[in-house]
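Hi R.,

Here's the chain you asked about this morning:
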Amino acid sequence: MFEDHSGEVLLDDELSRLLTFPNVTLNGYATNYAEKWNALKAAKRVSGVKAIADDIEVKFADSLPRNDGDIAGAAANQIGWSTIIP
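And here is the predicted structure, written out as C-alpha cells:
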C-alpha cells in the first residue's frame, strides 16, 4: 500500500534499499512542463533505473489560466519575434 513520505528525510540505508528497485513512479504536481521534464530527466540519470512511470501532473498557477487560444497566440508571437525561425 502506498504511503506518502514526501515530507520526510530519507536515511542513507532507506535510500540504498530504494535504489535496488529498477522501477520508478514519478507522481505529484509540477508548475510547468519544464519542471516535469527535469524530474523525468533526473530519474533517468539514477543508476539502475530500468522503467519510469511518469504520473506527474502539470498544474499552472491559478492566476495565469491559459486556454488553447492563449497558447496558440503565445506560440505565434514567439515565432513572429524569433530571429532563427525562417
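One quick note: Helices lie at 12-18, 33-44, 68-81.

Cheers,
M.
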